[in-house]
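anyone seen this seq b4? input:
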Amino acid sequence: MLEVAAFKERITAEAEDLVANFFPKKLLELDHFLKDPSINITELKEIHSDINLPVPDPILFSNLHDGLEAQNAKKRKLEDGSGVDIVTGTKVFAMPDGMMKSNANLVDLIEKVKPEIRTLIEKCNTVKMWVQLLIPRIEDGNNFGVSIQEETVAELRTVEGEAASYLDQISRYYITRAKLVSKIAKYPHVEDYRRTVTEIDEKEYISLKIIVSELRNQYVTLHDMILKNIEKIKRPRSSNADALY
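predicted toks r here
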């Protein structure tokens, strides 16, 4: 029991410091980050990344003039049992740099934003645990303060979920881009695939700025909400004796 009491005291001290000091400090840091040149590029062409995949030579056909003759030739080859194919396919090529690189500009920005997302999730979890520990036992009446505690917990849980969705969004960006680059390697002559990669890069850049803005706003909202209701959060029920003094 002593260990549990010590844990509660530690959570209380940490959560109160988060609300009073860390939240306002972090919201100012994120507000400053939003003014950084790296996240305020107006010409999105500056964040484009070269897709260094060459376009191979077109397929060459020997003694064939259209697809119908190609099918007939394949049929004759199977019937004759001949193992020689007179159709020459696309030449095999390798990645010029050994590996298709990610968009370096976006990777750098993502590596700056992800720790901020993780920090918000962790701090919200601590404050949420603190408020939950302050909720008194269930009784009839005099539950207005308890309802404020429950609304605070719900808001903290919502912020946690939204922050986690930002991490999912980043993962989906990488997966989507990888699939498109694979399509370019398979169909190098299709320009639309190359343009689509550029489009999703621009979209992700805009999304990252929105994420940073949302992180800042969530710190502002939580700080304001908890401070305005701090008395009811700490003491959800006031006895009649307290009201006399």
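The CA atoms of residues 3 and 9 lie 10 Å apart. The longest helix spans residues 144-186. kinda curious what u guys think
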